[in-house]
Design goal:
Strand order of the largest sheet: 1-2-4-3-5-6-7-8
Order of helices and strands: EEEHEHEHEHHHHHHEHEHH
Helix content: 40-55%
Length: about 260
């Protein structure tokens, strides 16, 4: 782990492994770079794999106040500049996928390709927006623990809550490291995000869309919002919203296939 001051006002915590073409992995809400701890060694055999803690999460800075998805994408750009990455592949899980789309919309020249893992190009529904405010209220009144305890079980396929109890516990442990003000800032960012389906439909870059067979958060119809010769759609069998922890070898295989195509 390395703390990198990406600009005058913001420091990110970053995990790096391997050498070769650069692949950046962005974690989901109330996660951290540790979400990728099973995946990184598998990819690091062929690539330089970089996984930051996003703004408001784990050991990166967590300013008070609402964030925006665009601001969080700009953090990724600043990190890439600091690491002197001229081009790379950007893969985002859930919240990380929203950030990936914002990045691809504005900085596509920096990308070899990009992917959404259990994420969507669609905005929050009105109900979803209300739920974000309820989460912020709970964070302010009760702190991070009850929010994480309520969130994490929904992220795993139902049958995995017992079968993969250690992974569920690990995801909670990671979640508890999210500063409450950071979780609130990121929740408000997700609430205000816009529809970026046009980014998927309009790009000529190679795109990977990953859905979990039993994902209760982002169902396949929300994950697969665009199709085309440049878009690979992959469904991970048996997985919920957390294939990087539920079925890491299967997800890694899908990522290897996609990356081999990008860098062929």
């Amino acid at each position: 782990m390395t703390r990198i001051q990406v600009d005058a006002n913001f420091t990110m915590n970053v995990e790096q492994q391997g050498q070769g073409p650069a692949v950046l992995l962005l974690h989901g809400y109330c996660g951290s770079s540790k979400y990728w701890e099973a995946i990184m060694p598998m990819l690091a055999q062929n690539y330089r794999v970089i996984a930051p803690d996003l703004r408001g999460h784990a050991k990166s800075d967590s300013p008070v106040g609402a964030y925006t998805i665009g601001q969080m994408a700009d953090d990724v750009l600043a990190l890439a500049d600091k690491l002197e990455l001229s081009q790379f592949v950007l893969l985002g899980h859930s919240l990380g996928g929203y950030i990936t789309l914002s990045f691809a919309q504005r900085y596509s020249s920096r990308l070899h390709g990009f992917g959404l893992i259990h994420s969507t190009s669609l905005p929050d529904t009105e109900e979803g927006k209300q739920n974000r405010l309820a989460v912020v209220e709970k964070l302010q009144s009760q702190g991070i623990v009850p929010v994480v305890d309520g969130l994490i079980p929904k992220l795993f396929a139902p049958q995995h809550l017992e079968e993969h109890a250690l992974q569920v516990s690990r995801a909670k442990e990671i979640g508890y490291c999210t500063p409450p003000q950071g979780a609130a800032g990121a929740a408000l960012a997700m609430r205000e995000r816009t529809d970026r389906t046009s980014v998927l439909q309009g790009t000529e870059l190679p795109v990977l869309l990953v859905a979990g067979e039993h994902d209760q958060i982002v169902t396949a119809d929300k994950a697969f919002t665009a199709s085309g010769d440049n878009i690979s759609q992959v469904t991970i069998e048996k997985a919920g919203h957390m294939s990087m922890m539920e079925t890491p070898a299967t997800l890694a295989d899908a990522l290897h296939t996609y990356l081999a195509n990008v860098f062929q």
